[in-house]
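Progress report, Aim 2. The chain analyzed during this reporting quarter is listed below.
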Amino acid sequence: MVLAFQTEFELYEEFTKRRKKLISVMADERKALNVYIATAKFATDKDKKRGLEYIDSLITSPKGDMFFTYPLIGFYLHSRGFLPERMKQKIKNTFINYTAYRGDTENHWVMYYTALYLASQTWPDIDGDSWYTGKSSNKNLKEAEEWLNHWIKLTTTIGQGEFDSPHYGSCFLGPMFLLYDFAKDHNMRKKAGMMIDLLLADYAVEYLKGIFTGGHSRIIRSQVYNHFNNPMHSLGYLYFGDTEFPSRRDMVIFSCLSSYRLPYIIYRIATDRKNPFINRETKRVRNIIRIGKERNPPVYKYDYITKNYCLGSLQGGILQPIQQHTWDLSYVSEHPNGTIFSLHPYYSSVELAMFFPEEIKIMVDEVSKSKTIYTDENKWVSSSPFEQTFQHKNTIIVLYNIKDGEWPRHIDSFFPKSLDQIEREQNGWIFCRDGKIFVAYYPIKPYRWIEEKINYRLSSYFQKNGLIMEVANSDEYPSFVDFKNKIKSNKLDVKNFDKELKVIYTTSNGDVMEFKYDGLRKINGSAVKFENYQLFNSPFIFSKYK
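Predicted structure tokens for the chain:
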């Protein structure tokens, strides 16, 4: 018991050092000013004048909707003790008069309603004639509370819609930190703290030395191959350590200033990688408003996590528009861009119409204005209705069946140039080695091997297509040669692939994987049943679905 206490105390001291360093570096920032940086300046009494001038200029011409109101209420609540009365009144008037758009995604609504909740609580006696909503502070507070409670219930029963996002995850956690620290209602504070625990524990299971592993609902293109260029990495550094100092750190300021302290068990979940383990989770598709039979179909996640790598996947299909990342291998490396994955670079007005209410025929053009890579056939983020996966431990089979008339008609795979070794053998297998991992990749169809700036692109122009990948830690084999020989001795049956779209592969562990597109997934003859998945199911976390 004493040893455990000492360990926790030492970890708390390390956390405190990381926390202070993050705040100090943000406070010293002079070029890239924003509300988060201004908050850090006030928290450390560094260059407050410049921070105040920035906030003053910002609220003179407010814009950005929930991306403006959420950080602004955080700044105000953390800094109000140091603000002149003139600035307090100006910020108050901004909240009352600025018509903030609620947005159209889950993270938008969480930020919007958190800001509305805290602003209505902060200025409780304003009537509906004054508020931009046309409702009194009390009614605003009630509406925000009802929606936040609805979101909490939905997330804890059938999962998040914008789940496990390296970019947008902080847009859920940041608001919860503000509610935890500033909500006057005891129940709301308690729920916010529990949601922080849940979201960080969810992150911790898939955390590997700074890498947010597994499939993602939404991810920015550059974050797919740069594991450390995202806001969630900053939170991983703050709470779990075991990674480099983050480059994207400003959005973590409310976490740094919060009175919340991470339970020791969640730290252990994030860092205990002594033994490999399987993680299964159920999330949900964001609200489908048309061209679908179910509002929130389930998303099934599977991860195999070891000390050096994680192979993780979603089941495939359109689960989130525009920025979905269905599967990948992410691994610990001294080199950059430590990931291998494939995708079908799909885009369609049908995909967008499932989730957005605008006129279908203009959707692709409208989305492309803000998401400029959406129609790029060389993009590295995409959902596809023609992609399905089947993973068992360290092996994955990915199948594609691109319909006639659809475009693009090719699949692409990403191989980083930074790999220590890449061998493309005549029998079809591609073998890779990096640091402490070995990778075997079998492309079912012929392909082009294209050299790009940071990677090689495997591009295959066959509508019926697929791949098999098996991964291993290097200490599982005497040598890379032994790994390759074992893989080549494994039984692989794709002889009737064009007719049946079916693969049978015997893994190096002797398990027989059988996968037919739009058909059953079988392990050693037994069908895998997604309906048996729970909300969380790993050695660390268990929670029933619904």
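The CA atoms of residues 269 and 540 lie 6 Å apart. DSSP finds 17 helices and 23 strands in the chain. These observations will guide the mutagenesis work planned for the next reporting period.
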